[in-house]
Model the fold of this input.
Amino acid sequence: MRYKHLLAAAVAAVMINGCSDVSPPDVPFLGHGDSYETKPDLARVEHELPLGPDDLMKLTPQNLATLSQEQIDQVYARLTAGPIPDGAYNGSFFFADGGGAKRLSELMGGLKGLAVRIKLGAIEDIGQMLWKGKVFYRDERLLRNMIQDRKLLKLVIDNPDELPKTDIPGREILGLFQDDAWLLFPAKLYCGQSLLDSRRESIIIDYAFNDEIEGYRERPDFLAGRRGLKIRDEIRMVRPGFYLGRAYMGHVFLLNFTLYNEDVAEAGNADFIETGVVAEDCWQGSQTPGRLAAVGG
Done:
C-alpha cells in the first residue's frame, strides 16, 4: 500500500511540475520570507535591483514560469506598460508557487492541497489546449481572445459556424496548413492603475462591459463579463513583442500569463538592447523605470 501512495505522489509531481528542464532566469531578486510583512517594497526592489535591457533579454515565457509568485511580482514591478500592442500575440498562462489559485493548495496542505494542485495542473493543460493568445486592435482599443476550435465547445457557443477566425502565429499543421482559432471574449483596452503596483500604470484588458462591443455573443462571452466571472487582466512589457500579464476575477488574483509576438520582437530588440527606450502609451510614474536606471548607471 505504501508503494501505491509513493507512485501516486510521483505521478502527481509529474502532472504538476511537468518534464521541463528549463532553468530559472539569471536575474536578481530581493530576499523575503513566507509571510506578507517580509515581502520587500516594490519601489525598493526597483531602486536597488533595476532590470536593465540585458537582464530583460534573459526572460522568456518558459523561464518565467519557473519562478515563485513573489519573484514574478518583483519582475512585474520593474516593468513599464510599454506600447499598447497591435495584432496577434501567442499566449501561455501558468500558476506560480505562493500566489493566485495555487496559494489555496499551499494553505490547505496535505491530501486536500495535493488534490487542488492536481486539479490546477489539469486546468492548466486543458486551458493551454484551448487558449492560444490574444488579438489586439490598437486603434479601436479593443481585444479578442484566440480560442482553439474544439467540437465540444460548439455545444456552448451561439452560431459557432459564423464565428470570425484568425490564424495562430507560428502554428502550422504538418508544416502545410495554417492553424486557426475562434475570436471570442472581447474586451476593452485602456491604461489604468495596476492592482499589484500602483506606482505606475499598466495596460488594462477589461471584460466588464464586453456586451457593448460589436460582435459580442451571449454564449460564451458573458462568462468573462460583469454578469459572469468579472475578469480583468493587466499587462506590462518585458521587452518589444513580449508582455507579462496578471489575470484577476473581480479583485482576486488568479494566475500569470505571457504574450509573445516574434515579428515585433525581431524588429525592436536591437534598439532596445542598446538604449532601453520604448514607446510608452501609459503613465510611467515618478520613479525612473528600472531598465533606464540600469542603462544610465
Remarks:
- The radius of gyration is 20 Å.
- The longest strand covers residues 177-193.
